[in-house]
Amino acid sequence: MNKEPKTKLDAILRERGMKTTDLERALIEKGLKIEYYALSNYRSGARKNMTIETLNKLCVALDVTPNDLVEHDAVPVPHKKRYAKAEPEQDNTQTEVSKAPDFNDDYGF
Known about the structure:
By secondary structure, the protein is mainly alpha-helical. It has a domain at 8-69: lambda repressor-like DNA-binding domains (434 Repressor (Amino-terminal Domain)), CATH 1.10.260.40. Helix content is 39%, strand content 0%. The protein has helices at 8-15, 20-29, 36-44, 52-62, 66-69. Helix 2 crosses helix 3 and helix 2 (20-29) packs across helix 4 (52-62). The longest helix is centred in the middle third of the chain and has 11 residues, at 52-62. The chain is elongated.
């Protein structure tokens, strides 16, 4: 029962016969840390966006390039939107535009 790899990270780990705990150990040996749950989520594809720092750590631990790990066809997941306070309606009446300062004026410098 050999399933298709879910992500590029999963494919690399399967090819090397590594478990997620082995990857975590490899990171620790290099003095790096990524939480186990995050590694599991990256491997399964549940977590698609990773920081440059995380990508760099994985590349160092696995001795690969970012292109080996990044899914080019992945659809970016939008960030959660914060609810902004409703902005007051703008007054449509025209106001006088202040004159831009004339830099030829003598300001005493």
